[in-house]
Design a protein that fits this description.
The structure is a single chain. With 339 residues, this protein is an alpha/beta fold. It is built from ten helices and 15 strands. The strands form two sheets. Strands 10-11-9-8-7-12-6-13-15-14 form a ten-stranded mixed sheet, sandwiched between helices. Strand 10 and strand 11 form a beta hairpin. Helix 3 packs parallel to helix 4. The longest helix has 13 residues.
Length: 339
């Protein structure tokens, strides 16, 4: 059987839920009987049935399951959470073979699901398109392995390398790249800005240009300078404000007290505690440069207006990394980098 073909389909299915499953991973599953796909499913949101269960429930002739192979992009869970263990259900239904894309690095799984299946006499094949499966869950794996969120730097600059004209807010992207940014926000868990960006732009940091979930908003505002009538304090999304004065929660706003010394280490530790799996760093040059200087990032996305020359203003961050991909959106290009 072409295991790679079916695992690739699992990955495609998993990506349909990107942005909707936090803090859970995205997972897809396919059930194959005599070379034909008879069931498909993916984990749609946290607390809802897992991919394997949705795939099983989609099969019209349940009697075929005991002679079928179930494919899953991530190792079936073996512990009780908001849902029962998927490995137990696979055993109960009498599957003879399970094919797994990659094992789960979560401490409650981490090979236990595979072991449970094998101990039940099921043939288990794993590590099929392992790298691709891990990449589809890069946020989940980074969070559990590095104990911090997956970090994406993002900014827009002119052709001559400025973020604004004469230090005043300037529209650089076009409508297409604006929609791209809002799609990105809907897929990532959270988005972060600093005090200066919040004061100058008064951003909402929502997905108003598309239909999609709003990310958790993160504000670094040590001295609580941003007025509470600004958009970041509205009730459109959960908001976390890091500051030097207070802890506590008020409605949808969570205040977390940290110090200015080594604040990036404290930030990562606290975001891990808050179960934030990915963050778009969309702050101004100073905020972005701090992450770059600490080499604390995983991806960078740079929107460049090829026809706009601003000549004076805030310089874009200093950044030297290998370009991975470029996409064209009319007069804008989007450059993708990986660390």
């Amino acid at each position: 059987m072409n295991h790679e073909f079916y695992i690739r389909r699992c990955i495609e299915l998993a990506k349909k839920a990107l942005g909707n499953t936090y803090p859970n991973p995205v997972v897809g599953s396919v059930i194959v009987h005599e070379g034909k796909i008879i069931g498909e499913g993916y984990h749609e949101k946290a607390g809802a049935p897992h991919a394997e269960i949705n795939a099983i429930n989609s099969v019209k002739s349940a009697e075929l399951l005991k002679d079928a192979t179930i494919y899953v992009s991530l190792e079936p869970c073996s512990h009780y959470g908001k849902t029962p263990p998927c490995a137990n259900k696979i055993i109960e239904l009498g599957f003879k073979k399970v094919v797994i894309g990659t094992l789960d690095s979560h401490e409650k799984v981490n090979g236990q699901g595979k072991k449970l299946l094998k101990n039940a006499g099921i043939e288990v094949i794993s590590d099929i398109l392992e790298k691709e499966c891990q990449d589809s869950n890069k946020r989940f794996f980074t969070y559990h392995q590095k104990k911090r969120p997956y970090l994406i730097l993002k900014w827009a600059q002119s052709a001559d390398g400025f973020l604004d004209r004469d230090f005043k807010p300037t529209q650089i992207g076009n409508p297409l790249t604006k929609q791209f940014v809002h799609l990105l926000r809907s897929q990532e868990h959270a988005i972060l800005v600093g005090t200066t960006t919040a004061l100058i732009d008064n951003p909402s940091l929502t997905t108003r240009e598309i239909v999609g979930r709003n990310p958790v908003r993160i504000l670094i505002d040590f001295d609580l300078k941003v007025p509470q009538n600004f958009n970041l304090y509205n009730n459109e999304a959960r908001t976390i404000i890091f500051n030097i004065y207070k802890d506590g929660t008020e409605s949808n706003i969570t205040f977390i007290k940290i110090t200015k010394e080594n604040f990036l280490d404290q930030l990562m530790m606290n975001l891990y505690k808050q179960q934030i799996q990915s963050v778009i760093i969309e702050g101004g040059c100073n905020t972005l440069q701090q992450f770059i200087d600490q080499n604390l990032w995983d991806e960078a996305i740079v929107i460049k207006n090829e026809t706009l020359f601003l000549r004076n203003g805030t310089k874009a961050p200093e950044f030297e990394n290998e370009l991975v991909e470029v996409k064209k959106f009319r007069d804008n290009s989007i450059q993708f980098y990986k660390n």
